């Protein structure tokens, strides 16, 4: 279980998150939904140690990870697929995946499991990451994160700019990870995509907690989504 307790964070002197608290259970998909600038990506970066934790606690299965340096957070068991993917563009698909495997000392068996999820990558192992299509790059970023065998998985707008077939492929993998007991925190602007996979939706507004509701409740009443996300 991934938990944030009263988290305050931001960029230098500019505070963005204000007493934010979240809980993502093992085997659950929680979507963080809010307007642009509400603090969604800041939340992800704070969990990963890429932004300073001003105060509050971040725990994974009860272990305090809020004080860890960024390179130690994946080793604790958190996989991160950032917006923009951040692949090693000049390295091959195989080399990008090897970097993921090395984080927690995973072996060839894990690599095979990951490639079974993304058969298209198996055909492109020697290809430089920068030559892949946008959808294939998203697959590679996701596969690399899965190579660490994460307890929790953070995805920041994974379907942005992808064609429907690629979106469906990513969706299937996310659902499979949930079935395997991974705690998944998803940032996604497409409400239809959110409601197709999420168990619960946590709204964020100006860096603060909004309502937390089941996806089923939002399917029945879209007015709440409009309140937090509508223009």
From TrEMBL:
Question: SMART domains, per this entry?
Answer: AAA (SM00382)
Give the record's family classification: Belongs to the ABC transporter superfamily.
The GO terms describing molecular function are: ATP binding; ATP hydrolysis activity; branched-chain amino acid transmembrane transporter activity
Put simply, this protein is called Urea ABC transporter ATP-binding protein
Tell me the organism: Roseovarius atlanticus
**Entry-linked CDD domains:** ABC_TM1139_LivF_branched
What are the GO BP annotations of this UniProt entry? L-amino acid transport
List each copy of the ABC transporter domain by range.
Answer: 2-231
Lineage from the top down? Bacteria, Pseudomonadati, Pseudomonadota, Alphaproteobacteria, Rhodobacterales
**Keywords, A to Z?**
Amino-acid transport, ATP-binding, Nucleotide-binding, Transport
Q: Does the keyword Hydrolase apply?
A: no
SUPFAM superfamilies with a match to the protein in the record = P-loop containing nucleoside triphosphate hydrolases (SSF52540)
């Amino acid at each position: 279980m991934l938990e944030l307790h009263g988290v305050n964070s931001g960029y230098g002197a500019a505070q963005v998150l204000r007493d934010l608290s979240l809980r993502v259970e093992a085997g659950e998909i929680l979507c963080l939904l809010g307007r642009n600038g509400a603090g969604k990506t800041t939340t992800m970066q704070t969990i990963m140690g890429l932004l300073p934790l001003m105060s509050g606690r971040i725990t994974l299965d009860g272990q305090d990870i809020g004080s860890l340096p960024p390179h130690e957070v994946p080793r604790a068991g958190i996989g991160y697929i950032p917006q923009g993917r951040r692949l090693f563009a000049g390295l091959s698909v195989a080399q990008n995946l090897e970097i993921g495997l090395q984080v927690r000392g995973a072996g060839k068996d894990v690599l095979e499991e990951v490639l079974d999820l993304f058969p298209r990558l198996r055909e492109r192992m020697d290809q430089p990451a920068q030559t892949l299509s946008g959808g294939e790059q998203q697959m590679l970023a996701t596969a690399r994160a899965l190579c660490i065998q994460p307890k929790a998985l953070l995805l920041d707008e994974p379907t942005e700019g992808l064609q429907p077939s690629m979106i469906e492929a990513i969706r299937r993998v996310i659902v499979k990870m949930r079935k395997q007991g991974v705690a998944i925190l998803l940032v996604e602007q497409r409400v239809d995509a959110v409601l197709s996979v999420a168990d619960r939706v946590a709204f964020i507004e100006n860096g603060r907690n909004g309502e937390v509701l089941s996806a089923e409740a939002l399917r029945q009443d879209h007015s709440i989504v409009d309140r937090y996300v509508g223009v």
